[in-house]
Structures are given as C-alpha cells and as structure tokens.
Design a protein that fits this description.
Order of helices and strands: HEEEEHH
Mean pLDDT: 87
Largest sheet: 2 strands, antiparallel
Strand content: 5-15%
Strand order of the largest sheet: 1-2
Oligomer: single chain
Number of strands: 4
C-alpha cells in the first residue's frame, strides 16, 4: 500500500495491555513508552483495511457529488436566465436532509458494523 493511502485512511486504535492508547495509521509500528511492548499494524490484512477505506471514501464522495450536482444545476439555471429555478434549491436540500442523508447514514453504520474487528498481537 502506498504511503499516501496509508496516511489518508482512518486511524487504528491500539490499546496496550498497560492501558496506554494510541491512534496509528496502517503500516505504523508503535513501541509503548510505559511497558515497552511493540505493536505493528501490518498484522491487519491489507484487503480488509482497503475495505474500510472504500466505506470511508463512499461516505465522503457521495455527498460531495450531490453538492457539485446541485451547484451545477443552480449555475445552469442562472446562466439560462431562469432564476426562478433557483427556488428548487431549498426543496432539493429539504429532500436531501430529510430522506436521502438519513438513509445514507443508516447504510454507513450498517457497513461499519459488518467490517472486521482486529486483535493485534504484541511483537
């Protein structure tokens, strides 16, 4: 996995046996300052971590695409001289926040629940 993908992914919570907690990126190694135990996130299967990245990206990309589509529609209405079409924007926002976004959040939480949980072993 390339370095930029490692840094862009979600942090992995590692809790040492002594109670120390660290948030690491995929591929990082951490040596606990309290007890000296070493933790390596490379123990996580790369394909499983990529599944987490896909779920995270989808949660970001879909709303961004909807926003871009909405802005493009408003600009198109203004360019065509149909300023009254801009009235559709509040309606579209209402539909997004009342119906689409809650559905998307439920799906996101369901996908998160289906993702694997990892138990790292100290080295």
């Amino acid at each position: 996995m390339s370095a930029d993908k490692v840094r862009s992914g979600p942090a992995i919570t590692v809790t040492c046996g002594c109670g120390e907690v660290r948030y690491l990126h995929y591929g990082e190694v951490w040596r606990c300052e309290k007890c000296g135990t070493t933790w390596n996130t490379n123990q996580i299967p790369e394909e499983e971590y990529r599944a987490v990245l896909r779920v995270q990206r989808r949660q970001i990309v879909v709303p961004a695409l909807v926003l871009i589509l909405g802005i493009a529609t408003v600009v198109l209405f203004v360019v065509l001289g149909r300023v009254q079409g801009v009235i559709l924007l509040p309606f579209a926002m209402f539909v997004w926040f009342m119906f689409v976004r809650p559905f998307q959040r439920r799906r996101f939480h369901r996908q998160l629940a289906e993702l694997p949980k990892w138990e790292l072993k100290p080295e």
